[in-house]
Amino acid sequence: MSDSDDDIFKKKKPSKKKIEQQQKQQEQQLLLQQQKQLKQELNQTEQQMNNPKHPKLVIYCRICTFPVEFCSFSKTPKECKEWLKTSFNELYAILYPEEFKLEQEKQAALLEQQRLIAQHQLLFQPLGKKKRNKTKVKESDMVYLKVKERNRNKFITTLSGLEKHGLDIKETSKKISKKFGCGSSINEKGAIELQGDLTEELIEWLPKEYPNIKEDMIAIKDK
């Protein structure tokens, strides 16, 4: 046996980890190639799609190994759908239009809810910063606003502390209800409860309607 033959046998075989990495890279390249081919297939003109000589690209599910059009007949349809949605979202939208539309609507509703929460939080932020720069007000002069979410996108504003400034609670409750066109009631603690989030309106309206209540005296309770 020659020296060159000895050198060949002395070479180390690739490790199991390296082989697995190479296989994974090949699978990823194959998946990217299939995605590219699918995109080309979806973007072809109607004339090309109606041509019987035009070859049709077949995508096989990585979960059940069936063509993706037949995943519903497999033993793992849910897993197949998740794989298809992750790997070929455009094709998933075509094969399962109702489920795709429902997921889009849920996502839109979630984003809208997050937007409303963020908007609600921003409403209090400028007031909080402004209060820190103001002189300290006595507790006996403070008027408090508290907003509580009753149902989805429905709020109740509680207004308390008006009696400290000599105001008639029942009369004030009726005046606010008429001014902002909202339902109002008086709870067991003697505070006014108003339908809706009226914090911004009350912060502006109270000092104008009752000059002895300054803007510095109005605070928002978190709890």
From TrEMBL:
Domain of life, per lineage: Eukaryota
PROSITE patterns: SUI1
Any one GO molecular-function label of the UniProt entry: translation initiation factor activity
UniProt-listed InterPro entries: DENR/SUI1_TIF, DENR_C, DENR_N, SUI1
SUI1 domain segment(s): 143-210
Residue ranges, annotated region (Disordered): 1-28
Any one GO biological process: translation reinitiation
Protein known as: SUI1 domain-containing protein
